[in-house]
Design brief:
This protein is mostly helical. The chain contains 19 helices and two strands.
Length: about 475
């Protein structure tokens, strides 16, 4: 792991501040999966879903440590794609990069439509299609200005979500301790006896597969690290700050929900609103809906950023059309941003014209991408750390407990994949994602086999490193 900043980081600039990177990492893990989807895990396992969240949270801590170690040593907008290429070759790296890019551009469409659909429940007069396109246009404009503007926008988005979680935890604590006037505390009866693990070990395992996806998006910190002024220092702070806060927020929120909302309750469809309504707070459903909209828009904003930087990195390495490496005077990869959002716009249009026929299929295909990205990150860190230790390389950030904790992360991933393949509902999703990986791997292998060599035996990725500039 060379301790140097790649050309991509210099070409793109270094305007992100440590506080923005930290809040981005925190905000990316607090999304609609927590605000809306957490009820599915509780429904599957009961309050024992806390065990599932602890296991999944441990996994994401290990992945963040691994990514942090590599990003601090070698900040690059291609992040885990570049690290996988260094460890296992350019075909593997390009496959991971394209896989992540495809996931993000599909999710951009889902988030735009999801945010518009939620907002339509409050303002039904506003057309969903119009709101979806307004969201995409506004956030595209944010991404096209400068990374500093993007970072500030995402900082306040994330701060809103964090504030909502803190307020929720305060209300939940007051409710459980019986401090709310006129409201009886539900106590901890849901945790007693057989009610704690309503479906036993199988329920906990099923919930583990469900809740693992709630932490998707945290890997974007390793991408954004390349555009900070002091990558090593910023990554250290982000990793150490984000990790314990994620666990506190997630475990705290799930504990409150599991204690207040019983398994089988209709309230699990919107668990945060159910808790606030139990606390006797008026307008709870509307408040949570607005927070969920903000969470989706924050994710859309971050995913567009991540997709554009990955496309830029792939182009810079010769794994994508060279035009995608073009940068503006603001040092933004304009073509990569527009290409990434264009895929999302086309998907939105097709979904609106052919409802439930396009987006669902695409989401099923890329549904398990984050699991494979985390796997590639741990495998790359394992190989590169062993290489660095052999060569005596001094690393600015070292993952503790190596190689045992890296191996533990891989074992957790094996367990999640095993549970996924056993489940009848999750198996098709995993098979679809693995099929996509196979297609991408073959395409990248053919790309390297069929014309990547130039004069003197030098690969195309090692030549023509000048970045195109757009005035």
């Amino acid at each position: 792991m060379e301790q140097q900043t790649k050309k991509s980081a210099r070409a793109l600039g270094a305007a992100l501040k440590p506080r923005q990177l930290t809040m981005m990492g925190l905000g990316s893990a607090i999304g609609a999966g927590l605000f809306i989807g957490s009820g599915a895990g509780i429904q599957a396992a009961g309050p024992a879903v806390l065990i599932s969240y602890l296991v999944a949270g441990t996994l994401i801590i290990l992945v963040m440590w691994a990514l942090g170690e590599m990003a601090a040593a070698n900040p690059d907008s291609g992040a885990f794609s570049v690290y996988t290429a260094k460890a296992y070759g350019p075909v593997a790296g390009a496959t991971v990069g394209w896989l992540w890019w495809l996931q993000l551009v599909v999710v951009i469409a889902a988030e735009a439509l999801g945010a518009a659909g939620l907002l339509a429940t409050i303002f039904p007069a506003l057309p969903v299609w119009l709101m979806a396109f307004v969201f995409i246009v506004v956030l595209t404009a944010v991404n096209l200005t400068s990374v500093k503007n993007f970072g500030e926008f995402e900082f306040w988005f994330a701060l809103l979500k964090v504030a909502a979680i803190v307020a929720f935890l305060a209300v939940g604590a007051a409710l459980l301790f019986g401090w709310l006037p006129g409201v009886q505390s539900p106590g901890l009866s849901n945790f007693m006896g057989d009610g704690f693990a309503v479906n036993g070990f199988s329920g906990i395992a099923t919930a583990l597969f469900v809740v693992a996806f709630a932490f998707g998006g945290t890997e974007i910190v390793s991408v954004a690290a390349a555009e900070t002024a002091e990558p090593a220092r910023s990554v250290k702070k982000a990793v150490r700050t984000v990790l314990w806060r994620i666990l506190v927020f997630y475990i705290g929120a799930i504990f409150v929900i599991a204690a207040v909302v019983p398994v089988g309750s209709e309230g699990l469809k919107s668990p945060f609103a159910a808790v606030l309504e139990a606390a006797g707070l008026p307008g709870a459903a509307t408040a949570i809906t607005l927070v969920a909209v903000a969470a989706l828009l924050s994710a859309l904003n971050a995913n567009l950023y991540g997709a554009s930087r990955m496309a830029y990195s792939l182009a810079e390495r010769g794994e994508a059309p060279r035009l995608l490496a073009s940068v503006s005077k603001a040092r933004v990869p304009v073509v990569a941003v527009l290409a990434s959002v264009a895929f999302g716009v086309v998907t939105v249009v097709l979904e609106l014209v052919f409802p439930e026929m396009v987006l669902g299929v695409l989401l099923n295909i890329v549904g398990s991408t984050c699991l494979l990205v985390w796997t590639s990150a741990l495998l790359a860190q394992l190989a590169l750390r062993l290489r660095a230790d052999r060569e005596g390389t001094d690393l600015p950030l070292r993952m503790p407990g190596f190689p045992w904790l890296t191996s533990l992360g891989l074992l957790i991933l094996v367990a999640i994949f095993t549970v996924g393949f056993i489940g009848e509902d999750s198996r098709p999703q995993l098979l679809s994602t693995f099929g996509l990986v196979g297609v991408l791997a073959v395409a990248n292998w053919l790309n390297h086999r069929g014309g990547r060599k130039v004069e003197g035996g030098v690969e195309a990725t090692d030549r023509d490193k000048q970045t195109v500039s757009i005035d």
